[in-house]
Automatic annotation (TrEMBL):
InterPro entries: Calcineurin-like_PHP, DNA_Repair-Maintenance_Comp, Metallo-depent_PP-like, Mre11_N, SbcD, SbcD_C. Keywords: DNA recombination, DNA replication, Endonuclease, Exonuclease, Hydrolase, Nuclease. Residues 1-218 form the Calcineurin-like phosphoesterase domain. Transmembrane segments: none annotated. Belongs to the SbcD family. GO terms for molecular function: exonuclease activity. This is Nuclease SbcCD subunit D. It comes from the Bacteria. Heterodimer of SbcC and SbcD. SbcCD cleaves DNA hairpin structures. These structures can inhibit DNA replication and are intermediates in certain DNA recombination reactions. The complex acts as a 3'->5' double strand exonuclease that can open hairpins. It also has a 5' single-strand endonuclease activity.
Length: 386
């Protein structure tokens, strides 16, 4: 059976001040064309269909049109909710849509009930594990701890138990939305850290033939059978060097895997430029970025006069401007944001306590801080639900 694995559409998202709806529409046109041209048997969408819990109407209409086009081709779609989606809203009408071949999996309690597809070699059980917020689903799975490894492990135990009851030779696919150890993140993914640990081991998915992952925006292979498709478009300048694509996956009669990357349309290249304003305006090597979306970081010791206007004359599509004056590494004038870059919420809170009190928090205090952050994230998730 041939699958097209995609994820992280983030319909309704903008790139800085640029509305990406036309670029997202071009991608989905490309997806439907690929399904037809490559004779795809089923489409796998591994979460973050929308960019927020209550998406704009234009994004909902694009989603609806795309599912109708896939249904008209007679190609089943299996789709899960991600951490950006409202699982309840995305799952409305799932029963009716399933009759048309669109299998929505947004309820954690039913993650062990697969969409069963078939080819000339037999049945394939496709399990959809929506994003599992540990604090909210711990009781559902009877997990020992409220962390990602515990709840995702419990969900996979249910999947393996169901698979064991199926006829011998049944092949299996799992869709999941998670941060798996070995994956490389970017700046555009929302933090899902819980209890100080976001990543889960790839071994948690042992026992299935293919794992279609979502959440990380770079296309990557965690293992032969465990892959991220990545987002079809760049959603931050940290994705400057990403090759955006989907996975075309052939699942053989004995569970063999062959995967090929299918590139997605690029609306405009990205460029991150750094240097003094005069150099950025004069360097002939930078002419190739005249048509790119540009992020410029100026290193002038003093802020130049109207730098954005000057840069826009050469780079008409410049979207972001930052100032990082050249200074010694220990210069106390380094910006607060720069000092916090790459640090988790818990690490920042730990540093704050140490700065104010003069000593770092002990293990008990760290546990209190961690629980507080988990409670805030859980509350944020609840407020997204109707």
């Amino acid at each position: 059976m041939r699958f097209l694995h995609t994820s992280d559409w983030h319909l309704g998202r903008s790139f800085h001040r640029v509305n990406l709806l036309d670029a997202q529409r071009a991608f989905l046109d490309h997806l439907v064309a690929t399904v037809h041209a490559e004779r795809v048997d089923a489409v796998l969408v591994a979460g973050d269909v929308y960019d927020r819990a209550v998406p704009p109407l234009s994004a909902v209409e694009l989603y609806d049109t795309t599912l109708h086009r896939l249904a008209d081709l007679g190609v089943p779609t299996v789709m899960i909710s991600g951490n950006h989606d409202s699982a309840r809203r995305l799952g409305v009408g799932a029963g009716l849509m399933g009759r048309a071949g669109v299998h929505l999996r947004t309820d954690p309690a039913t993650c062990h009930r697969p969409a069963v597809l078939s080819d000339e070699h037999g049945e394939i059980a496709v399990y959809g594990l929506p994003y599992l917020e540990p604090v909210l689903v711990r009781s559902e799975f009877g997990a020992e701890r409220a962390d990602h490894t515990a709840v995702l492990g419990a969900a996979m135990d249910r999947v393996r138990a169901d698979l064991a009851e199926r006829p011998a030779g049944t092949r299996s696919v799992v869709l999941a939305h998670a941060f798996v150890t070995g994956g490389v993140s970017s700046d555009s993914e929302r933090d899902i850290t819980t209890g100080g640990v976001a990543a889960v081991p790839a071994e948690i998915f042992d026992g299935v033939d293919y794992v279609a992952l979502g959440h990380l925006h770079g296309c990557q292979t965690v293992g032969e059978r465990v892959r991220y498709s990545g987002s079809p478009l760049a959603y931050s300048f940290s994705e400057e060097h990403h090759r955006k694509s989907m996975w075309l996956v052939d699942l053989g009669p004995g569970g063999e895997i062959a995967a090929e990357r299918i590139d997605t349309p690029v609306p405009r290249p990205l460029a991150r430029l750094r240097g003094k304003l005069a150099d950025l305006l004069a360097d002939p090597k930078l002419e190739r970025y005249a048509d790119a979306w540009v992020e410029a970081t100026l290193t002038d010791p003093f802020r130049p006069h109207e730098p954005m206007a000057a840069l826009a004359a050469r780079f008409p599509h410049i979207l972001a401007l930052a100032f990082e004056p050249e200074a010694a590494p220990d210069d106390p004038a380094l910006s607060y944001a720069r000092r916090l870059r790459g640090r988790t919420d818990l690490q920042i809170a730990e540093d704050f306590v140490a700065h104010v009190r003069g000593s770092s928090p002990d293990h008990r205090e760290l546990a209190v801080l961690s629980d507080a952050f988990d409670a805030v994230r859980a509350d944020d998730t609840r407020t997204e639900r109707p």
